[in-house]
Design brief:
Elements: H1 7-24, H2 29-36, H3 40-52, H4 68-78, E1 82-86, H5 95-110, E2 116-119, H6 124-132, E3 143-146, H7 154-170, E4 174-176, H8 187-193, H9 197-203, E5 211-214, E6 217-218, H10 223-228, H11 234-242, E7 245-249, E8 252-255, H12 274-279, E9 282-286, H13 293-301, E10 307-311, H14 312-320
Parallel strand pairs: 1-10, 2-3, 2-5, 3-4, 5-9, 9-10
Antiparallel strand pairs: 6-7, 7-8
Length: 321
């Protein structure tokens, strides 16, 4: 008995032919239809079937310096809404400038729809971010709120005002300043400052933030903070170490698992509260560098941030931990 060719093999051969012409040689579907004597609709249908049966397989090859896989793994491991991994080279000194540029680019789109934005008062990385930004055309942001009082010496505290003001200018938004120290000497001093109507007005916005832009601090102060007058005294630092603290956002300290570590210092802080902060819908942390590992890891674990912009060395270390 004569054997007849399997009609399915002819169909597969036709699919492969069309796929080669389309993907390999770059012909358009009407050209393929004309060359093979088929209707354009059938060419389109067979191209889709070629994908379904595995003749055509789509692969993504990220360009050099793009870390799509790392970002996805970070998001899955730490439950992040989004991770942005930045190629900062191998020089530790380059981390902050590169993070600032990448964060500035990211914010151009991330701020869409964010009506009221909070920004922590002093962070070298956030300063680099704002310095790298360009004015945002047709911004939907109406207000930029300073969510922590100034830190360090009086001259250093002015950085908080300039940072908030510049960010607001870039978004064509109103700047709402918190003109008080971020940390005061006693709970009584804090209570007295909280009687000021303007201070109460600023605090009243903290529950209505759309997004907050955060630096992440380690327990050991950075060179910048040391030079500007560290507000955390040796006694406070010792109390934080005993409590297991490894880092902070907005002077709200947490341990290695990201759990809030209230200490006497907590009652002297003029800024957004721990639970208020974690209720903000978008919490974008910008931080990197070797010294920040435990702080960044804990901030992600504890839900202090839901978006992380960091360097590729840090990303790899976070995944290996």
């Amino acid at each position: 008995m004569a054997s007849f060719p399997d009609p399915s093999s002819d169909l597969l051969r036709l699919m492969a032919k069309i796929a080669h012409l389309y993907h390999g040689r770059g012909l358009k579907q009407p050209e393929i239809a004309s060359q093979l004597g088929l209707s354009q609709a059938r060419v389109s249908r067979l191209l889709k079937q070629a994908e379904q049966v595995g003749i055509v397989r789509t692969t993504v090859h990220p360009p050099l310096g793009v870390f799509t896989d790392l970002e996805e793994q970070l998001e899955q491991k730490y439950g992040l809404r989004e991770a942005v991994v930045v190629d900062t080279g191998n020089e530790e000194e380059a981390v902050i400038p590169f993070l600032g540029v990448s964060a500035a680019v990211y914010l151009q789109t991330a701020l869409v729809g964010a009506r009221r934005i909070g920004i922590s008062s002093w962070s070298e990385t956030l300063l680099a971010t704002v310095n790298a930004m360009r004015p945002v055309a047709q911004s939907s942001t109406t207000q930029v709120v300073q969510v922590l009082g100034g830190l360090g010496t009086p001259s250093s505290q002015a950085h908080a005002t300039r940072l908030t003001e510049r960010f607001a200018q870039l978004l064509d938004a109103q700047a709402l300043f918190l003109p008080v120290p971020g940390v005061v000497g006693s709970a009584e001093a804090r209570a007295a400052l909280m009687q000021d109507p303007h201070v109460r007005e600023v605090f009243g916005t903290f529950d209505d933030l759309s997004l907050v832009l955060l630096g992440i601090g380690s327990l050991d102060p950075s060179k910048l903070i040391r030079e500007s007058g560290n507000v955390v005294s040796p006694a406070d630092q010792e109390a934080l170490r005993r409590a297991g603290a490894v880092g902070d956002v907005c002077q709200r300290f947490f341990d290695g698992q990201g759990h809030y570590t209230p200490v006497p210092l907590s009652g002297r802080i003029l800024g957004i509260g721990a639970e208020q902060l974690r209720r903000v819908p978008r919490r974008v942390g910008v931080a990197g560098g070797r010294s920040k590992f435990f702080a960044i890891q804990a901030a992600a674990r504890g839900g202090w941030i839901d978006t992380l912009i960091t360097d590729h060395h840090m990303a790899q270390r976070l995944l290996q931990a």
